[in-house]
Task: structure prediction
Amino acid sequence: MAFAPASLILANNYLPLNEALCDSQAMKYKNIISAIHNFGHSFSSYENYVDDDFVIDELRNIRRNGYDISVNWLTREFEPSQLLSERITKSIGYWADSLEEHLVKHNVEPSAIKSLVFKWPVKTMHYIVAIDDRDIEHKKVINYAS
Result:
């Protein structure tokens, strides 16, 4: 017969040791920056392939034609809206659908994110910025995809 210390027993159920020793599922605000960076980097990379082409190539062409690019991940809005293609629409949908799972994997509670926007201005590097439920801004430049 095996025995577990009383601190590892909750309602007659045994907890895995890592959960008993620390709250591994707790919201970690410090993880927001890495979570949004990974998300933005993946969206603007060659991992984003829709309808037989890379979305980043289409985004680059829009930017090269003098347009600032913006994607609001919570509302799925794209700017410049007049250049929103079916490929970009699908891509935003796919990535937005995976956002909650992505945040949870980083120990970030999705409801803690009040705003999440990917920006790619014509004259500067692209970045992603989140506002959390404490009204703190988390901004990360993505050093890739020019």
